[in-house]
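Human: I wish I could look at a protein chain and see how it folds. This is the protein in question:
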Amino acid sequence: MPSSTIRSISITVSDDDGAAAPRRTRAGRRKVVRSLGQRAVRLVARWWPILLLLPAVALLLFEASRLRASPSPAPPVSSSLGRLDPTTRLVHGVREPCLKVLSPKSIENLVFHEGSGLDGVVKRIIYKTDDDDYDSHHSEANSTYLLQHAEATRFNLFTGFQTVPEREESFKVNETVSVHCGFYSDNGGFKISDDDVRYMRTCKVVVSTCAFGGGDDLYQPIGMVNSSIGKVCYVAFWDAVTLSTQEAEGKLTGDNEMIGRWRIIVVKNLPFVDQRLNGKIPKMLTHRLFPEASYSIWVDSKYQFRRDPIGVLEALLWRTNSTFAISEHGARTNIYDEGKAIVQKHKATPEEVEVQLTQYRQDGMPDEKRLHGLKALAEASIIVRELTPLTNHFMCAWFNEVVRFTSRDQLSFPYVLWRLNMPGINMFPVCTRRDLVNSLGHTRKVKPLTQTNTDSSTA
């Protein structure tokens, strides 16, 4: 072939042909991507429950770690402290207040009752003392024996040594009754200063509470009408442990021994090792501590009293022609069921409860939900009463039962109610109790008393 011909031959290269290789590469990539996407969709469709569960588990673990790191929540004091709103209940489809207290103006104009006028059988009560019992008729050696015996039986030189026949005699209702009722001997304990004794003799209406062993805090009463303030004594009984505990928290008494509205009375030489039993003294023996008083309201230390005392007396005593008011029990109605609950909650040993209930069965205590028309069980954290020989007799008998058996006063109340059949008792419903107080719970564990009677008698 001639050279000129060779030089005239040309090879045409298209632009499209030059880009073919890269285009094929991109198409392959798209195919791979589509394949991966389809595979991912299939995986999601197959494992979606697990994929949803994993974030939930992670969130739970995160929240758990936050809870472990955060401090324990404070007790619900702020939620109830200072509340004055009424507690209500549904009556025929309408909300009504559980406690119908008079208006402040009506309380101001209220004529103060000097007595219910209830004609009780008991007209006079004699409290047994060392003038007619063991302490003045035994040598020093025998007195030491009695102190040791008292520690085993819980009767001591404060309570007196009630025998079984004397116990039976104490439940007889006559115009004049003679009973053990604490403060048996000058050497028995529960010492109060002369200044405090003089103060207590001035009280005509008293609201009282106590905290022994560094227990609960002191909550200021609220809801008083101005006209009632000067008519009512507010008294809190403490021991030295509670005083030091409160002072460490900055709660100091002034020169007048007051913290807010409360007069602080420091008791020395407590007569029992069981602090719960020491607490029964101001709770049940108000008439012995305040001999000139006409009315008393007891409030457990876990509560803040939030109603006018005079208004409460009118609502629970005067309006109902009663001398004694106490709340019904909210959970149980039977004394024997109460015994089981006390054991289950470790508030007393099975042996202690069995001894008490066995004695009550032997005495003929009925297994009834109601006694003399009243609910058998009471919730005894609030007690409102007129201080008369009738109610004083009842409280003395009740106190002797908690000394003789367990200190669970809810277990012995039905027995005393059954034996004495005291008229003029108003057992109000649980919702009324809730209206009387703000419940704050127990603040701290009570420190047990380590002294014995022999040690404390020389303090």
